[in-house]
Design a protein that fits this description.
By secondary structure, the chain is an alpha+beta fold. The protein folds into 3 domains: about 80 residues, Helix Hairpins, CATH 1.10.287; about 110 residues, Cupredoxins -  blue copper proteins (Immunoglobulin-like); about 100 residues, Cytochrome Bc1 Complex, Chain D, domain 2. It contains 6 helices and 13 strands. Helix 1 packs antiparallel against helix 2.
């Protein structure tokens, strides 16, 4: 018997089948008795109304049977859920960050990836983190889903049992591009994983500059385009050195998009809201982006004329 893509598939599927089966039995039973009583107590078959006497046996029956059914469903649900909170010793710990609107996975050696690469048949623990709003990491093939709540530690773990790629979704509505918050789990052999894990890559070569790399790693490009198109926030293209109409404490004023403006926008993004955009969609990156990194960001923005 195929155990499934992860170690939780069998337990979750069993609980689902049991609950679905009992629900089907109840649907048939309730429908049958409903039709039976409609016919039996219709005016044609029961022209003279009569009081129905109390039946202690019937009351006990319809109390005990549903209780037993609920306990059965609880039992299978519990034995499917409990192992999900018991992480085995030696699990590979990976920090999974969900932000508007992308996933980022950071490994113990500092390696980062926008897809989750894991070895087959090895326990993996994901420490869940969100810097902005509520997300939910959902891997349907593995039958696992956990909320990613800002300021609240949470985790999930699994053992991938099949090679291949599996979809990752955000299962909690988190804004206008929620449906685009997609990623993959890539399951590979242990030797291949170790080679990938230990391979040193110069990530800066993937970007035009260090500033672009910083923006990409912090998820900024999910909300700010680089081609002039309008997303959740103002486009980076042509931003630096231009006048912007911004709202400050309910009043509109013009500001120059210079070095200090860029710094304020990163450290206190809701103090000055560019006209045409909404407040509260961006959180402060003061603890995530240093002043030296902001200088690199500014240098990059200057190139986007």
């Amino acid at each position: 018997m195929n155990p499934g893509a992860s170690n939780f598939v069998q337990g979750v599927d069993t609980a689902f089948i049991v609950i679905l089966g009992l629900s089907f039995v109840l649907l048939i039973g309730i429908t049958f008795f409903m039709v039976y009583f409609v016919i039996k107590y219709s005016k044609k078959n029961h022209p003279v109304p009569e009081d129905v006497k109390d039946s202690h046996k019937l009351e006990i029956l319809w109390t005990v049977i549903p209780t037993i059914l609920v306990l059965i469903m609880f039992y299978y649900g519990w034995i499917g859920y409990q192992p999900m909170r018991e992480v085995p010793n030696g699990a590979i710990e990976i920090k999974a960050t969900g932000r508007m609107w992308s996933w980022d996975f950071e490994y113990p050696n500092g390696k980062r990836s926008n897809i989750l690469v894991v070895p087959k048949d090895k326990p993996v623990k994901l420490n869940l983190y969100s810097p902005d709003v509520l997300h939910s990491l959902y891997i349907p093939a593995f039958r696992i889903k956990e909320d990613v709540v800002p300021g609240r530690p949470n985790y999930m773990w699994f053992i991938a049992q099949e090679l291949g790629e599996f979809d990752v979704f955000c299962a909690e509505y988190c804004g206008v591009q929620h449906s685009y918050m997609l990623s993959k789990v890539r399951v590979i052999d242990e030797n291949e994983f170790l080679a990938w894990f230990n391979k040193k890559e110069d990530e800066s070569q993937q970007f035009a500059s260090i500033g672009e790399q910083i923006l990409a790693q912090n998820g900024c490009v999910a909300c700010h385009s680089r081609d002039g198109s309008k997303l959740v926030g103002p486009s980076f293209k042509g931003l630096y050195g231009t006048q912007k109409n911004v709202e400050v404490n309910g009043d509109m004023k013009k500001v120059m998009a210079d070095d200090e403006y860029i710094k304020r926008a990163i450290y206190d993004p809701n103090a000055e809201i560019v006209e045409g955009f909404n407040k509260g969609l961006m959180v402060s990156y003061k603890d995530k982006i240093t002043e030296d990194e902001i200088k690199e960001v500014v240098n990059y923005l200057k190139t986007l004329k």
